[in-house]
Amino acid sequence: MNNHGGEIAGTLIGLFWVALGWWMIAVGRRRGRVGGDWVSAVGTIVDKDGGTEGLFLRNPHIRYAAPDGSEHTVASHSRGDLWEPGQSVEILVDPADAGRAVLRTHAARATPYVVIGWFIVVVGLLTLIASAMLALWVPPPSA
Question: Which DSSP letter does residue 61 get?
Answer without folding.
Answer: E
